[in-house]
Amino acid sequence: MRILIAGGTGLIGRALSADLAGAGHDVIVLSRHPEKATGLPRGVRVERWDALTADGWGPLADGAGAIVNLAGESIAAGRWTSKRKRCIRDSRLDCGQAVLEAVEAAAHRPGVVIQASGIGFYGDGGDNEVTEETPPGDDFLARLAVEWEGSTSQLQGMGVRWAAIRTGVVLSPAGGALARMVLPVPLLSARRFGSGRQWLPWIHMADEVAAIRFLIENEDARGPFNLAAPNPVTNAEFCRRLGEELGRPVRLPFPDSILSLLLGEMATVLLCGQRAAPQRLIQLGFTFRYEDIGMALEDLLRRKRQ
């Protein structure tokens, strides 16, 4: 099938496009700068879009098997000033509007639209388990996730199958959170944040990709899904297990006050957490390959060394 991926040049997008292309699908990545979209997996095409409208690329949505919308500015690219937060928000809503516009104009609408979201949808969950039935929180990331999902959710009323992926912390040997924590002379390596009691809703990249593909292929997959391993760990436990795998001692923690001074409001990403359960994925029959954090870290660090 033809699958369009908006945000396909990012960490998740590259891994997903490689998997789908390897399975024989016609994968098209939408990029604002096709000339810079180098090193994409073999068989993946790039088409230009402005991340605002369906101009130029819209006809590709006609008859497509799926559209996966992962596009949006990184939440970790700088302090959350008012301007920065507007940029983060607007980038997500604009991309959602572009997808909505393309689908509305299609004579034959796509089989499914997979809409990115975040596990931050629930705010700081404390020690309470959060499932897809848990209501949203009220901090910046929670409000952002609600609006991000809402940017394309009205497609459900048009007869288009729609699923939102509330993704946790994706662990990958190619970059992202794990890469920043295993640097040879790290500031953050194996170091817990604040009390360390906050829950870390992690997921191995292989399971992230497999889950998205599962949702594309499963006709019963509709609505929100938590993409997080079934066995979350606290930040302290994650750091302990990472330290063991690296053969390094767990370093002294970063106090809340220092993180807040360094990062401002963005420190909530590190100091808050969600004890997320992938309830709906498991109910549909999805099987995680990496349920245990030790097994996941062992595999990821082995791949990183190769």
Q: Could you please describe the fold and organization of this structure?
A:
Residues 183-188 have low confidence and may be disordered. Helix 2 (82-105) packs parallel to helix 3. By secondary structure, this protein is an alpha/beta fold. The protein has 10 helices and 16 strands. Strand 8 (169-172) and strand 9 form a beta hairpin.
Counted beta strands:
16
Q: What are the secondary-structure elements, in order, as H or E?
A: EHEEEHEEHEEEHEEEHEEHEHHEHH
Walk across the major sheet and give the strand order. 3-2-1-4-5-7-13
What's the average pLDDT?
Answer: 90
- Low-pLDDT residue intervals, each spanning 5 or more residues: 183-188
Shape: globular
Outline:
This protein is of the alpha/beta class and 306 residues long. Helices cover 35% and strands 20% of the residues.
List keywords for this structure.
three-stranded mixed sheet, 306 residues, alpha/beta, 35% helix
Question: How are the secondary structure elements laid out?
Answer:
Layout: E1 2-6, H1 11-22, E2 26-31, E3 45-48, E4 66-69, H2 82-105, E5 112-118, E6 129-130, H3 140-150, E7 161-167, E8 169-172, E9 175-176, H4 177-181, E10 191-193, E11 199-200, E12 202-204, H5 205-217, E13 223-227, E14 233-234, H6 235-246, E15 251-254, H7 256-263, H8 268-271, E16 275-276, H9 279-284, H10 293-305
Parallel strand pairs: 1-2, 1-4, 2-3, 4-5, 5-7, 6-16, 7-13, 8-12, 10-15
Antiparallel strand pairs: 8-9, 11-14
Helix pairs in contact: 1-5, 2-3, 6-10
